Amino acid sequence: MTSQTYDANNIFAKILKGEIPCHKVYEDNDTLAFMDVMPQAPGHLLVIPKVGSRNLLDADPAVLAKLFPVVQKLAVAARDAFEADGVLISQFNEAAVGQTVFHLHVHVVPRKEGEALKPHSGKMEDHAVLAAHAEKVKACL
Ligand code: 5GP
Fold first, then answer.
1. Cα 61 to averaged position of ligand 1 atoms, centre (Å)
2. Fewest beta carbons within 10 Å, which of 1, 3, 27, 77?
3. What are the structural domains, with CATH classification, of the chain?
4. Under 8 Å between Cβ of 35 and 45
5. Model-level pTM?
């Protein structure tokens, strides 16, 4: 079994500290949402709590209670922005099941019927495209 400690230097913690940039879509006192740099479909974004935990397994339930209404808000906005037929919500807990960044995050992926998902952590998207997609979702919030 892997260590369950939270590393405060993970990449999303650095985004929260402003040490590395992101294409921000939404922010409040407790939550940040930004575009995934390797989207599995256009509009794929991530919602993270500002309080650090590795994933769902070690998160404070009070943090989850604030996080999920924001996930819902972003899912609706992403659906509207991308005229999606549905929205995939996914969340990985530990490397054994595909987690690659160890700060709790929820994937919000608007999807069109019949369009295959691109690979998880696959190809880096162009920053101009990510910036445009962030604006599209923001316009629907
Ligand atoms: P996980 O596999 O941990 O559930 O997902 C991590 C996600 O973070 C992946 O979908 C990956 O594309 C995304 N990601 C990895 N590094 C960065 C980064 O530096 N910035 C952003 N915005 N997304 C990242």
1. 23
2. 1
3. 11-139 (3.30.428.10)
4. yes
5. 0.97
